[in-house]
């Protein structure tokens, strides 16, 4: 079982290049199969979720050609099945985008109920509500969702909750529907806008992405495109917090600073310095972290996918902080692991009450999910002594070369898979 071993306590400095957004890429790959022409996607991150989705579309007959590590050519003209294998689906959340894409293109889709991080109950009722509103019949049998329609007809759809996945999925299903679809109370995340931009570059007619109301004017066909995915807001935010927790000085490159505003403002509140440039941000940690209060919210609020990472910084702050998780009910599973490292955190309902401690101490911990895993690495970087983070397959779902990027900033971290590797690391770091 692969693990990260970390010797903490080093101030990390230098610059790091951020890759394409995982969550935008996943929807964009699904969108790419909606035309029979070739789509070239650039700036794709080489992460497990993306690779699983590429295998899933190959599994139904699409041709996927890797141009280089971060660029693929996809051709959906050879798709021979609208039923996606459970083996792929169970691994990733975003497999649900194949429902919207296949339904939109072939008026029929069969996809297993999705997997992804176990951070809450994660219903998909809003996706289904949207598909039904467009005229599809949707049933769930034996763990599979089956959606089919004679024709899809544009509708006014009000979302009961703000959902990134449902907003994008309805956009995908509506893009070649007849007439106009208005999605009200839509999610405004940067990746919603990116997917709309990508679809528009394929000939779609989508307006309003990034606002509460998205209008999709159905078109009869989509064509090929070349599209470059936006930078990953969460990978960028994670490295910004690496600077905070190691009291380092890190320039995070290839980002859109506007997408990072909620993260930047919390870093300023806790005493860090943030300099913004056109496509990079420089974060300098401060000797003493100031306590604060955080509530996760849909964009432009503080992202739930950054909640575990800010928690590590606040667990090192002077005074008592609170974090209220308002999106997912089970996103504090890392707290027990952080306690092993000396953190003082109490969870009451959807709020974590955090009393800052002076120093974490290294321990053996286990990543319960993707962002929680990244947060435990951050804690290990800040801790005194050795930390072993187990189950790093979760981290690799969404971070490309996480350990390599951290090493380039001066971190002492290695991926290890045996006791022999651990001993080698110990000898190396002294
Ligand atoms: C692959 C992907 O892009 N994952 C992201 C996506 O997940 P995901 O698309 O699953 O998250 P949503 O935005 O849909 O979920 C937001 C809230 O709405 C609820 N809900 C959602 C759909 C639905 O049909 N019914 C319902 O009640 C969810 O339980 C949750 O409480 O957005 C989340 C919120 O920014 C991020 O944490 C995930 O990283
Ligand atoms: C929760 C996440 O991913 P997913 O929705 O794919 O489980 C995430 O990216 O933090």
TrEMBL record:
<keyword id="KW-0132">Cell division</keyword>
<comment type="function">
    <text>Cell wall formation. Adds enolpyruvyl to UDP-N-acetylglucosamine.</text>
</comment>
<feature type="active site" description="Proton donor">
    <location>
        <position position="117"/>
    </location>
</feature>
<protein>
    <recommendedName>
        <fullName>UDP-N-acetylglucosamine 1-carboxyvinyltransferase</fullName>
        <ecNumber>2.5.1.7</ecNumber>
    </recommendedName>
</protein>
<feature type="binding site">
    <location>
        <begin position="122"/>
        <end position="126"/>
    </location>
    <ligand>
        <name>UDP-N-acetyl-alpha-D-glucosamine</name>
    </ligand>
</feature>
<dbReference type="InterPro" id="IPR001986">
    <property type="entry name" value="Enolpyruvate_Tfrase_dom"/>
</dbReference>
<dbReference type="GO" id="GO:0008360">
    <property type="term" value="P:regulation of cell shape"/>
</dbReference>
<comment type="pathway">
    <text>Cell wall biogenesis; peptidoglycan biosynthesis.</text>
</comment>
<feature type="binding site">
    <location>
        <position position="327"/>
    </location>
    <ligand>
        <name>UDP-N-acetyl-alpha-D-glucosamine</name>
    </ligand>
</feature>
<dbReference type="GO" id="GO:0009252">
    <property type="term" value="P:peptidoglycan biosynthetic process"/>
</dbReference>
<dbReference type="InterPro" id="IPR036968">
    <property type="entry name" value="Enolpyruvate_Tfrase_sf"/>
</dbReference>
<dbReference type="GO" id="GO:0019277">
    <property type="term" value="P:UDP-N-acetylgalactosamine biosynthetic process"/>
</dbReference>
<feature type="binding site">
    <location>
        <position position="305"/>
    </location>
    <ligand>
        <name>UDP-N-acetyl-alpha-D-glucosamine</name>
    </ligand>
</feature>
<feature type="modified residue" description="2-(S-cysteinyl)pyruvic acid O-phosphothioketal">
    <location>
        <position position="117"/>
    </location>
</feature>
<keyword id="KW-0131">Cell cycle</keyword>
<keyword id="KW-0670">Pyruvate</keyword>
<feature type="binding site">
    <location>
        <position position="93"/>
    </location>
    <ligand>
        <name>UDP-N-acetyl-alpha-D-glucosamine</name>
    </ligand>
</feature>
<feature type="domain" description="Enolpyruvate transferase">
    <location>
        <begin position="7"/>
        <end position="406"/>
    </location>
</feature>
<keyword id="KW-0963">Cytoplasm</keyword>
<dbReference type="GO" id="GO:0051301">
    <property type="term" value="P:cell division"/>
</dbReference>
<keyword id="KW-0808">Transferase</keyword>
<dbReference type="InterPro" id="IPR013792">
    <property type="entry name" value="RNA3'P_cycl/enolpyr_Trfase_a/b"/>
</dbReference>
<keyword id="KW-0133">Cell shape</keyword>
<dbReference type="Pfam" id="PF00275">
    <property type="entry name" value="EPSP_synthase"/>
</dbReference>
<dbReference type="InterPro" id="IPR005750">
    <property type="entry name" value="UDP_GlcNAc_COvinyl_MurA"/>
</dbReference>
<comment type="similarity">
    <text>Belongs to the EPSP synthase family. MurA subfamily.</text>
</comment>
<keyword id="KW-0573">Peptidoglycan synthesis</keyword>
<dbReference type="GO" id="GO:0008760">
    <property type="term" value="F:UDP-N-acetylglucosamine 1-carboxyvinyltransferase activity"/>
</dbReference>
<dbReference type="InterPro" id="IPR050068">
    <property type="entry name" value="MurA_subfamily"/>
</dbReference>
<dbReference type="GO" id="GO:0071555">
    <property type="term" value="P:cell wall organization"/>
</dbReference>
<dbReference type="GO" id="GO:0005737">
    <property type="term" value="C:cytoplasm"/>
</dbReference>
<feature type="binding site">
    <location>
        <begin position="22"/>
        <end position="23"/>
    </location>
    <ligand>
        <name>phosphoenolpyruvate</name>
    </ligand>
</feature>
<keyword id="KW-0961">Cell wall biogenesis/degradation</keyword>
